[in-house]
Structure formats: structure tokens, C-alpha cells
Write the C-alpha cells for this entry.
Amino acid sequence: MTPIEGFLALYIFMLAAFTGYEVISKVPVILHTPLMSGSNFVHGIVLVGAMVAMGHAETPLELTIGFIGVFLAAGNAVGGYVVTERMLEMFKSSKKEDNA
């Protein structure tokens, strides 16, 4: 890996982080639950990408970074589903229905 590839990857990461922050900060509060549902889908894709990257790793450093990526992506995907489920629970009626 040449140094220019590393700097190019860092540049792309910084650009994606800045763009993501700007886009997410403009989302109204009422759209947060649908946005979380959509982002859970993206987190699943990130998890698959991290697993593929880890599968192509050759050195111990690459394997370690890949494992950390898979671990964080899995936690992010699971956490997103948990948060979405809790948000949807808030919209359910708290009254118990009597079937008698």
C-alpha cells in the first residue's frame, strides 16, 4: 500500500463523515424513526462489507482491524434495531383491551 492510497482513504472517510453529519443534522425530529429504519438497512450492508474485508485480510494487523470493524458494525446494527423497537413501543396504546 502506497502512502497516497492511505491519504486518499483518509480523505474519503473525512468527506463522508462531514457529509453524513450535515445531512443528518438537517432531518426533522418527526422523521427520526423512519430514518432509523432505513439506516438499519445500511448498517447491515456495512456489516457484510466488514466481514468481506476481514475475509480478505492477510496480516495480523488487518485481521485485528477487520475484527474491530465487524464487532462495531454488528453492535451498530443490533443497537439500531433495539432503538427503533423502543421508539415504536412509545406509539402503542397503553390501554389494555378486555376481550370478555
In short: Residues 39 and 80 are 8 Å apart (CA to CA).
